[in-house]
Amino acid sequence: MTREEVFATVQDIFRDIFDDQTLEITDTTNADDIEDWDSMNHLNLVSAIEKKFSIRFALGELQTLNNVGAMIDLMIQKF
Amino acid sequence: MRFHHIGIACLDIPEALEFVQKSFDVIETTDIIFDKKQDADLCLLELADGSHIELVSGKAVEKLVAKRQSLYHTCWSVNDIEQAIEALYRNGAILISPPTEAILFDNRRVAFLFSEIGIIELLEENLSAV
Questions:
Q1: Does A50 contact B95 at a Cβ distance shorter than 8 Å?
Q2: Mean pLDDT of successive 10-residue stretches along chain A, which has 79 residues
Q3: Closest Cβ–Cβ partner in B63, B89, B114 for A59
Q4: Nearest of B71, B38, B35, B81 to residue A59 by alpha carbon
Q5: Which pLDDT score, from 0 to 100, does residue B81 have?
Q6: Domains contained in chain B, number
Q7: A39-53 and A3-17 helices cross at what angle (nearest 10)?
Q8: Which CATH number belongs to the domain containing residue A35 in this structure?
Q9: Is the ipTM of this complex over 0.85?
Q10: Segments forming the whole domain that contains residue A33
Q11: DSSP string computed for B63-121
Q12: Is the pLDDT at B130 greater than 70, yes or no?
């Protein structure tokens, strides 16, 4: 799976979680850019990503995920 | 792992407390305590049937309250909190906050996880009390 393919799937997940089919994310998108990206939706995102890609983020790893690019880079390390 | 209490998010603890006291057989109520680590006001009630309700208000639950979602968490008491975290993690839960002392529970440690059944609080057993 290429990074672009991962990115496209993650974008679909963001659109589902935030219920906005026009939402466009970039590597630098972070919680400040999306109004409803609160701690609960962050957990919903992480949970949906783990299920979709059959990966697990390790205990304590989530604190390092401060934007979309960091999240995708960490995901790719787990494939 | 043993069920301990349900955590209810509310806008105003005294108001919620008044309702619960009028509606249920409350036998014990703690003071309303501000827990700096959780950034929340907390109050624990014990009912005559032995069940417990924790009322929670403040920044930690303000988004839930705004959405009128009152169920905040279920709490389970455990002998070994680290082992319980590992077991829930293996089953797909995500650690929200690692074990930390909780003023409402005499500084016994609590941890929070996100799971398929919502937020789970783990409370370290008070092994000296039965």
A1: no
A2: 95 96 96 90 93 90 85 93
A3: B89
A4: B81
A5: 97
A6: 1
A7: 130
A8: 1.10.1200.10
A9: no
A10: 3-77
A11: HHHHTT--EEEEEEEES-HHHHHHHHHHTT-EEEEEEEEEGGGTTEEEEEEEETTEEEE
A12: no
Residues belonging to chain B: 130
Say which residue the tokens 């109050």 belong to: B43
Residues of A in contact with B61 (CB under 8 A): none
- Over residues B37-59, the pLDDT tens digits come to 889 999 999 999 999 999 999 99
For residue B106, how many other CB atoms are within 10 A of its CB? Answer: 9
Considering only CB atoms, which chain B residues are within 8 Å of A43?
94, 96, 114
Token duo for residue A14: 């963001």
Backbone angles phi, psi at B4, to 5 degrees: -115, -55
Whose structure tokens read 């319980």? B84
Output the six-digit token pair for B53.
């309700």
